[in-house]
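Q: What residues go here?
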């Protein structure tokens, strides 16, 4: 996206992130499974639940209609 989120969007993203972190802290196995995918190992200094929450939130933002390029 090439714009700053609106205050309403920021609130939604913040609430979503907070909920995701809570969920991943309660289900550490899911967080580890999500963050264990990829070519590079996860940095040990990053909290797995936080990284998993950011992964889902980034995916959500990148899947918004305005972020998808259509030809």
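A:
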């Amino acid at each position: 996206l090439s714009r700053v989120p609106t205050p309403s969007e920021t609130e939604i993203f913040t609430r979503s992130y907070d909920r995701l972190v809570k969920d991943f802290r309660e289900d550490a196995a899911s967080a580890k499974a999500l963050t264990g995918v990829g070519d590079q190992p996860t940095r040990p200094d990053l909290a797995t639940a936080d990284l998993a929450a950011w992964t889902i939130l980034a995916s959500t933002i990148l899947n918004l209609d305005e972020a998808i390029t259509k030809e």
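A: Context that may help when evaluating the design: The mean pLDDT is 91. The helical segments are 7-26, 28-35, 48-62.
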